[in-house]
Specification:
The chain has 256 residues and is of the alpha+beta class. The chain has 2 domains: 181 residues, Gyrase A, domain 2; 56 residues, no CATH class. The chain is built from 8 helices and 6 strands; from the N terminus they run βαααβαβααβααββ. The protein has a 4-stranded antiparallel beta sheet. A hairpin with a 5-residue loop joins strand 5 and strand 6. Helix 2 packs across helix 3 and helix 5 runs antiparallel to helix 6. It starts with a strand and ends with a strand.
Amino acid sequence: MNPKVSLLAKSSFNAKEFIKLLKYYRLTWRRSRGASQAEELVEVAGRVCYMSFGKRQSPKSNKEYIQHLIASGHESVLEHVSWTFLVTGVSRAFTHQFVRHRIGFSYSQLSQQYHDEEDADFVVPYNMDKFPEAMKAWEESIKVAKSSYVKIRNAVIREENRLPMKNNKREIIRAMRSMARSVLPNSTETKIVVTANARSLRNYLNARGSIIGDSEMRIVSACFLEILQKDSPELFSDFKLKHLDDNSPIVVREKH
């Protein structure tokens, strides 16, 4: 199973309303052709700080304006735009690391207390198939974990009268799954919805996209970057997608 990132939602910009407001102040805004809604929103947020519209607007294009913001380290205005993704085909080992990025991120993850994991999938570590002995040990451990999960779940259900919440079916199920999930490995596949702003995503890509020893993190970072550069290329133009000798992706930031 391979990681998959789907774009569910993104920021929109009501340009008509903003231009209407500028007219009230007798100002104009020279827009750049081809800029995305997110890129225009970032530019507007930055220009409002100085009301640099009309005669006070610099000759910089949207692309040049954003590049200047990033080069100067003035990335606070990038927090006004965000994207929501659904990430699937990833392991809980990945999400344990991923959710450490808290500032500017929101998460909603599949719950093992409310979702039965008897038919759970498992994520094979990248390149594991190149090590037959390790692969065999991994497959054996997965079989044991899945079997143990079912045995624990069924054993608790058979003797649910011993639970303190024996008259509450909902809590019995949650308690049963809490016990059973304890034997599931980090490689258990999970799903997570992520919302993050541009500044936080840039920080994530910079910190996680080029960690050589964490293939899954790099693969997901590459998926994010491909979507983000397609939607709003100027906000992520200093990141490049490259590949290592094993053909796995790596995200590298290159200063302008």
